[in-house]
Amino acid sequence: xxxxxxxxxxxxxxxxxxxxxxxxxxxxxxYIGTGNTVxxxxxxxxxxxxxxxxxxxxxxxxxGDMYVVSHGIMSDILSxxxxxxxxxxxxxxxxxxxxxxxxxxxxxxxxxxxxxxLDQGRAVTSMILLQNTRLELDxxxxxxxxxxxxxxxxxxxxxxxxKSGKEISAKFRIRLHLxxxxxxxxxxxxxxxxxxxxxxxxxxxxxxxxxxxxxxxAGKSFDGNCLxxxxxxxxxxxxxxxxxxxxxxxxxxxxxxxxxxxxxxCAGLFxxxxxxxxxxxxxxxxxxxxxDKQTFLYHNTLYLIYSCFSPSxxxxxxxxxxxxxxxxxxxxxxxxxxxxxxxxxxDSESSKKFLQFLYQSMNREGKPFSWMFAYDGRSTVxxxxxxxxxxxxxxxxxxxxxxxxxxxxxxxRSCGYPILERVAQYAAEELFSRDEQGRWYLSxxxxxxxxxxxxxxxxxxxxxxxxxxxxxxxVEYGRLFGKEHPLLEEITGNFRIEQxxxxxxxxxxxxxxxxxxxxxxxxxLFPTEGMPFLDLEKLNRTRKKYSWEELYMDxxxxxxxxxxxxxxxxxxxxxxxxxxxxxxxxxxxHTFGPGYxxxxxxMQETVGLPPYISAYGTFLNYLASLxxxxxxxxxxxxxxxxxPAELSSKAFQVEGLRCNKGLTLSAARLPxxxxxxxxxxxxxxxxxCLLPSGLDLSDAELYINGYPHCFEVIDRRRKILRFxxxxxxxxxxxxx
Length: 736
Fold this sequence. Notes:
Layout: E1 8-12, E2 15-22, E3 30-33, E4 37-41, H1 53-57, E5 68-75, E6 82-95, E7 98-100, H2 105-108, E8 109-117, E9 122-129, E10 133-142, E11 147-156, E12 168-177, E13 188-192, E14 196-202, E15 206-214, E16 218-222, E17 226-231, E18 234-235, E19 240-247, H3 259-282, E20 286-288, H4 292-308, H5 335-344, H6 348-361, H7 390-406, H8 409-430, E21 432-434, E22 440-442, H9 461-478, H10 486-493, H11 536-545, H12 548-556, H13 561-574, H14 577-589, H15 613-627, E23 628-629, E24 637-639, E25 652-658, E26 664-670, E27 673-690, E28 702-704, E29 707-709, E30 712-715, E31 720-735
Parallel strand pairs: 24-27
Antiparallel strand pairs: 1-2, 2-8, 3-4, 4-5, 5-6, 6-7, 6-12, 8-9, 9-10, 10-11, 11-19, 12-17, 12-18, 13-14, 14-15, 15-19, 16-17, 20-25, 21-22, 23-24, 25-26, 26-27, 27-31, 28-29, 28-31, 30-31
GO biological process, one term: carbohydrate metabolic process
């Protein structure tokens, strides 16, 4: 399985293999992360080449420079508001007077291979050096720590596989350069005590950093700018192995000093990391029935999220530190896609921590949230360009969905509802006015993004509908805490959406087709979930009149896979499974590897999505909605009803998916049989199911907890039936 413009030769659910006869420069990086500390790897297995994506795709100079960074450490050392680089790793090899390093690696190495193991948090890079030595460099990020583990393996190589019987002295050096790629020092006053480097990293504050470098097999040296571990193996016909551990928040934990103890210690770290990562996957929903590429993309999405971000510092759009300058490491509105996705998978802990981050970052006066803000809550966009208030909706929506999916009243009370109420009150008082007929409308000019020109879209439909959703949920939750919001009730009961008898408009006086840039009319049902405020028939007519290609692709002039999947989710909410699936496939056909420095890209295939969290979030949302549709209201629960005709005969299974009102669902669609398990409490729950393949409506029988149950057929052509139950605990549903 070879994907265009890449070195990928094999993809499995939890791994990706890349191979090349020569050392490739223009490939996408691999990422190793611990959940906070992250390094990107080029073809050298570390960062010796600084990869070649800039040259390959014309990105601006320096935009892809590779470093070791930690989430939550900010500096101006590269440009304003970026992730502060600790430095970068390179390696060198010497044997019998010959030398390989960053300068000549491409010419002195061959038969290159890299394998990324998602469930182990490891990347193993191998190559032949100087035509006589095999090198294998194994790098792992230890989840839940700030530790990077490296294992070097070397052996003699002969192209005819003959054994030399010799023992040859060699040197292998790993260097941590405490500098930028231009040579500027990354830290101040470094002090080295042969185990731990202490230094001050200047930035938004003075970060006092302790970097531990541990290895019982290496000599250690520090020249003020570079920390070097030097191994002196005897190269033989058998693998010779050495290990090193770098801790970027060095604690006082004892590290074994004896060689055998250290080797066992490192082996134990590898196994413990594997166990933790497997437990992380097992704690989240799992999908069965996807093809190999989609399964890998799903697991890779989770790998990147949990390896490269700490929710306590927000979710910057640049994913995952592939570009330290990316949009000033700011949290955008795009975080709502990612949060919705991982909440659907059952991760309440991350969404709770992110809500706490939002609450701490929220402005107590004036505008609750800037369009872009950094780890410390500071706005990173000029106020005159901050003209897209939908960012407030996005963060309020995260609070809404956390409560809807987990029924976590305490988090709603402590930070979710305060966010929601603050956003709703500010918007109602500052952004809305009455028209001549007494209807409420969004009266200030807004944009859907940060733009250079002045905003001019009055009563923009997408933003208006999203605020209506926020207002109604604020009223609903307010009653839980004995609060009334008469202004919000008045607005949601008497509002104006721009429209005529045939279609919804983009904004006041502007039809979608007349707008001078991409219109978001086609996205109206996701992420807004504004169903109660819209006429579905008119929305369908609007969608048929304006295709995504016309309103977005043609006007934007580029591919943006996250918008294609965003549209797919909106189409599924409209009940159009075929169009939703077409958009999903279109998005996947335009995917490209993490490392390209934009949310847009050429029409090429690799095995990654663009490195913007928007793409990963909408991908997760579409997968969840393909199996089970749900929303934040008291609407239907659709089990496999979003499957298109192309997939209707396939077997599918999902485990542990979160639904509205705190329900957890697992389901298996097998030939002639559908099994659904529901857990939670909800009276009068309406469930719709797509009949399993090979079963006719006239023969279908429904059982709930072993007892026959009645149902109604609501779509004979697609074979969809509906039934109602009072869920109180668990229910096992079988259709056969």
